[in-house]
Amino acid sequence: MEKYIPxxxxxxxxxxxxxxxxxxxxRKCPTCLRxxxxxxxxxxxxxxxxxxxLSQCDGLTAEQIEQKLGRVAYTVYKRLKYWDFIRFETIKxxxxxxxxxxxxxxxRRFLRNEITVPxxxxxxNDCVRRVPEDMYAPLVSFxxxxxxxxxxxxxxxxQSIRLKQE
Length: 166
Known about the structure:
Layout: E1 2-3, E2 39-42, H1 45-56, E3 60-61, H2 62-69, H3 71-76, E4 86-93, E5 96-103, H4 105-111, E6 115-118, E7 120-124, E8 127-128, E9 139-140, H5 142-145, H6 148-158
């Protein structure tokens, strides 16, 4: 199985991995005074489910995702961008600019269990960042997160079954 490492960039110049000062307080950005934090984003079964649902109806806007796929999928689908599973395309709807989520080739290959990706990534300022090797995550595949049997049960549950009336 092929290993895929998502796009990552270096931390900004002057930002150290130690994002706390000597007193243990979170450092503040000198420009905007926001707290600087390097957060760990983990790929879980609950985060992969929206990807699978999006693969059934690609190219939905945020409102459509909430309506068709549910609130849980809506709240976590944007994090799929960190693994390069989805990309956003700007469209005009009723004269307003909206973004629709489109599954990438990487996302489709992950769903087909053709590639493995890091189980977690480190994110700073909404961008995946390169980190030292001791912070690397183990690689996981789709079937590691969602066993094949479980996927089959979910697919079967979506199929309508007609009962004979006598």
